[in-house]
Amino acid sequence: MVIVALDIGSVRIGVAVCDELEQIATPRETLRRSSNAAALDAVARVVAETDAQLVVVGLPVSFDGRIHEQARAVLAFGKKLRGRLAVPVVYADETLSSVRAEEALRSAGVRPDRIRERIDAAAAAMILQDYLGTRRVVDVEALMQASPGAEKNSASAGAERYAEERADVDLNEEGKADG
C-alpha cells in the first residue's frame, strides 16, 4: 500500500511517500504553506497523484510527553485533512525527525545552503520510515498469531524481542532511553 507522510510546519510541509511494498520511504517534495486551504489542496493533490491509501502525520510530542502549541496546530490541521480526504489519517511521533534528517543530509554531503530546502521532506521520510518499521514488527506478530502451533523461527523470535524491547524503553528527562 502506498502511504504518504507529512512533516507539518507553520511555513512548509514536508512530504514523503513509500513504495507499495512498504519498504522504503522517500522524500517527495516540500509544500509552501501560504494558507491552510492551499495546503489542504496541495496535500489532497499529492494523495491523489500517488494513489495513497493512508496519510501519516508527524505529531511533535514534547519530551515531557505533553501536547504543546505546535502539536495542537498539527492536530487541528490533521482534523481538517481528515474531513477533506477519503483515506485514513493517522498520527506518528515525530520526535527528533528534523534533527535526524539534518544529520542524514549532512552525512550525504548536501551543502549547508541546500539543507533548508530539503529538510522538511527528509524529516517526513524519517517519520514514514519509523512508521513502516513499527508496522513490520506488528505484522510479524500478527502472522504468528494467525498460524497457531507454528514453530517460532529465529527471525520471528528476534522480531518479538525487538517489539518487547521497544515497549519497555522509558525516556528520561532529556529524552534519552533509560536502561
What is the topological layout?
Layout: E1 3-8, E2 12-18, E3 25-32, H1 36-50, E4 54-59, H2 69-84, E5 89-93, H3 97-107, H4 112-146, H5 154-168, E6 170-171, E7 177-178
Parallel strand pairs: 1-4, 4-5
Antiparallel strand pairs: 1-2, 2-3, 6-7
Question: What can you tell me about this protein's structure?
Answer:
The chain contains 5 helices and 7 strands. The protein is of the alpha/beta class. It has one domain (3-174): Nucleotidyltransferase, domain 5 (2-Layer Sandwich). The strands form 2 sheets. It has a 5-stranded mixed sheet, sandwiched between helices. It has a two-stranded antiparallel ribbon with strand order 6-7. Helix 1 (36-50) crosses helix 2, helix 3 (97-107) packs across helix 4 and helix 4 crosses helix 5 (154-168). Mean pLDDT is 80; it is low at 151-163 and 165-179.
Strand content: 15-25%
Number of strands: 7
What is the second-level CATH architecture?
Answer: 2-Layer Sandwich
**Main pleated-sheet profile:** 5 strands, mixed
Distance between the termini: 36 Å
Total separate domains: 1
Fraction of residues in H or I helices: 40-55%
User: Largest beta sheet: what is the strand line-up?
Assistant: 3-2-1-4-5
CATH topology: Nucleotidyltransferase, domain 5
What's the CATH class label?
Alpha Beta
Uncertain segments: 151-163, 165-179
The CATH fourth-level homologous superfamily: YqgF/RNase H-like domain
The dominant shape is: globular
Q: How many helices does DSSP assign?
A: 5
Q: Helix-strand pattern, N to C?
A: EEEHEHEHHHEE
Mean pLDDT: 80
Cα-atom radius of gyration: 18 Å
- The secondary structure category is alpha/beta
